[in-house]
Amino acid sequence: MTETRLPVALVVVIDAILVAVFCVIGRLSHAEGVFSDIPGLLGTIWPFLVAVLAAHAVLLLRRTSADRLLPGVVIWAVTVVVGLVLRALSGQGTALAFMIVATLTLALFLIGWRAIVALVRRVRGRVRS
Prior knowledge:
single chain, mainly alpha, 4 helices
C-alpha cells in the first residue's frame, strides 16, 4: 500500500500561509497595523516567507516529499535561521525574546500540521490493515 502524498503546491501554500499567520499574530500582539499598514505587514512577512520558500526550493531540488515530518523539521529550521538573518540584515528587530517566540511558534505551525497528517496516515493505515 502506498501513502498518499500531498501536492507540492499545497504544501508550499500551507507553509506560506502559516508563516503569514505567525507574522500577523506578532503584529497584532504589538498593536501594529495589519491591514491598515500593508507595507509594514509585508516588511514583517518577507524575511520568513523568503526563507520558507528557499527551504522548499532546496527540498524540491532534492526531490524530497515536504509533507513528511523530518523534511518539515528542515523547513522549520531553515525558515527560522534564514528568516532571522534576513530580518537582522534588513534592520528589523531580533531580540532574544523574539527569536525564542519565532522558533517555538514556527515549530508549532510548520512541524505541527505535519505531525497531524502523520497521525492521520498512521490511523488510516491501521484501519485499512
